[in-house]
Specification:
Order of helices and strands of chain B: HHHHHHHHHHHHHHEEEEEEHHHHHHHH
Strand content of chain A: under 5%
Oligomer: heterodimer
Helix content of chain B: over 70%
Distance between the termini of chain B: 30 Å
Shape of chain B: globular
Structural class of chain B: mainly alpha
Radius of gyration of chain A: 16 Å
Number of strands of chain A: 0
Strand order of the largest sheet of chain B: 1-6
Helix content of chain A: over 70%
Number of helices of chain B: 22
Number of strands of chain B: 6
Order of helices and strands of chain A: HH
Chain lengths: 61, 528
């Protein structure tokens, strides 16, 4: 039971890492496209999300 | 632009924060990089007048640079995992113990000579990703394995990867390569010996230095002289490759000397017994197959013009307009880092991986559907290090685009005055530390170094040689590069341990190079 629990936790961490990495690679490009199309508010929103991911990576490890 | 001490200190905060978190608090690269990224974002916005446009562009440029690096990291990891799963890595370890029984010479052969040879042909992170696991297989500790390779190949970075960093220096400075080559060859030649001695000191605090000194002197002379002569004769593109190849040849000869084939240590006896226990399943050629194929592919792709042209037809990059910060720092319009989809070092490692996979499958050394295990192991190793690389590169790009990096460099030049030749290699180190790349360090700082050298009436080729030598050395203490090594050595999250040693060694070597540059600058000024 204990092993099963820790296995689940490891898997969740790996999924989180994968999600963080994908977002950190996608968001800069999305910001670039948004800014080039004068969608400033969207770019700001993406920058805030990126900051939150960085803070999450910093705290949740 | 006059830099105030307060602005200088503010600009340097993210770097110190990352260093303290990694070395003192032992944070992993991903955590420390994220903290550095957030601090750089806040400081650049509050004190350097960075607006949304600059921040977005910095992250888009960082994305391209990260992808460039991650391409190599992931493909290098796949190649290594295939070799490991097939049993090739263990066999390579056993084979290399047969070259010489002397442990220090084994370490030097791999961490100093073989890694420099790989740096000569392959790009960013390949030597550290490939050689560290081999050292672990030989029985060296993971921390030592990463540290030794990070230090050992630092001297060959400038002329390595088909002289990418040196060519960047030529392009940015507008000077002739033949004018820049002699001083670069001299300073990097001295660094070659210093890195070898440092590897031995890191290994056993220098206890075996006298025993391996003849090997260091003979192999080091062959490598540094070859690099100097090739670069000086216009063949800088193959200077590090030629030096590494002849270095391997010299090592093969030196390791046959009686002093390196005498008393076997207890450790070696233990290894021998282990060897006898394990039945040899692979021949040496089979074990080295992935790396032989990689070397053949890289040499063909880089040195055969037709193949090089064919593979580099598809390149991806982003374009950016000119931007200006509130403090007047201008980022000229231009393109981001280009990624050649099929000709990139990562792509070449992928070809080698595919060929190796089918080769080992045909030899029944890999089980059916073993690709699932390979991909799973690669993912678990690569994820953490990738997060670290992305955050570190993102931080470096904010600092570069907001003028923070330039503020630090200009401040160093401004506060040091006549002692500038001593500081010059430290600026090169700073560039590599920030970006993990000597090429990027040269692109960012060569114009600044050239400008200061002209103002102070110093020899421009000497100062630029000090810059690129510092850039080469800086690779050993760049967190982004250390993360690559730690990921393949199973040290993810413990990068601080390695960085703690490489930063000491890197700063000592840079200080020596700084003093030599200062001395040469003094002599040149007084002679002329």
């Amino acid at each position: 039971m204990k092993n099963k629990h820790s296995l689940n936790l490891r898997w969740t961490k790996r999924q989180l890492d994968m999600a963080s990495l994908v977002l950190l690679l996608v968001i800069p490009f999305a910001m670039y496209v948004a800014l080039n199309n004068s969608l400033t508010n969207i770019a700001v929103l993406f920058l805030i999300i990126m900051t939150l991911i960085m803070l999450f990576t910093m705290v949740k490890r | 632009m006059q830099i105030s001490p307060l602005l200088f200190i503010t600009a340097i905060i993210p770097i110190f924060l990352v260093l303290i978190l990694m070395i003192v608090f032992r944070w992993g690269g991903a955590r420390a990089g994220s903290a550095g990224w957030v601090s750089a974002l806040i400081i650049s916005t509050l004190f350097f007048g960075t607006d949304l446009e600059i921040l977005v562009h910095s992250q888009a440029k960082g994305l391209m640079l990260s992808l460039y690096v991650l391409y190599i990291v992931w493909m290098g990891l796949i190649l290594y995992t295939i070799a490991q799963e097939s049993g090739a890595i263990s066999q390579i370890g056993r084979d290399l113990t047969k070259v010489t029984e002397n442990k220090t010479l084994q370490l030097l052969t791999l961490a100093w000579v073989f890694s420099s040879f790989l740096q000569g042909i392959a790009g960013y992170g390949v030597p550290i990703a490939v050689v560290s696991p081999l050292l672990i297989a030989l029985g060296f500790t993971p921390v030592l394995s990463v540290t030794a390779v990070a230090i050992g190949h630092a001297w060959s970075v400038n002329f390595g990867s088909i002289a990418a960093s040196f060519n960047a220096m030529i392009a940015v400075s507008g000077l002739d390569g033949r004018d820049l080559a002699p001083w670069s060859g001299i300073l990097l030649g001295i660094t070659c010996f210093l890195t070898a001695v440092s590897v031995v000191i890191v290994y056993d605090k220098g206890k075996s230095i006298l025993k391996v000194l003849p090997a260091i002197i003979s192999i080091g002379t062959v490598m540094s002289l070859t690099q100097y002569l090739l670069a000086n004769n216009g063949m800088w593109n193959i200077a590090a490759f030629g030096a590494g190849a002849l270095g391997l040849l010299a090592t093969a000869i030196v390791s046959r000397l009686p002093i390196y084939r005498t008393p076997k240590s207890l450790n070696n006896q233990g290894q021998k017994m282990e060897q006898e226990k394990d039945k040899q399943q692979l021949s040496s050629i089979t074990a080295f197959f992935p790396y032989i194929i990689l070397i053949i592919i890289v040499i063909t792709a880089e040195l055969v013009p037709v193949v090089h042209g064919f593979l580099n037809q598809v390149k991806v990059n982003l374009t950016f307009p000119e931007t200006e910060t509130g403090l007047g720092w201008i980022n000229p319009a231009g393109k981001s880092q280009s990624i050649s989809i099929f000709g990139h070092s990562g792509a070449l490692a992928l070809y080698a991986s595919a060929i190796s996979y089918f080769f080992f499958r045909k030899k029944n050394l890999l089980k059916d559907k073993s690709y699932k295990t390979i991909l799973s192991k690669t993912t678990s190793t690569g994820l953490q290090s990738s997060l670290g690389i992305v955050s570190m590169v993102g931080m470096a790009m904010i600092m570069e685009q907001s003028g923070m990096t330039n503020t630090i460099a200009t401040g160093l030049g401004q506060f040091t005055g006549k002692a500038f030749p001593f500081i010059s290699p430290f600026i090169g180190v700073l560039g590599s530390f920030m970006t993990g790349s000597n090429t990027n360090s040269n692109v960012v700082f060569v114009p600044l170094q050239k400008q200061i050298a002209e103002l102070l009436k110093l020899s421009v080729p000497l100062i630029l040689a000090a810059q690129t030598t510092g850039g080469s050395i800086g690779g050993m203490l760049a967190p982004a590069r250390i993360i690559v090594g730690c990921s393949t050595a199973g040290l993810t999250g413990q990068e601080g341990q390695v960085l703690g040693t490489t930063i000491k060694v890197g700063l000592i070597i840079t200080t020596i190079i700084g003093l030599i540059t200062f001395l040469f600058a003094f002599l040149l000024k007084n002679v002329s």
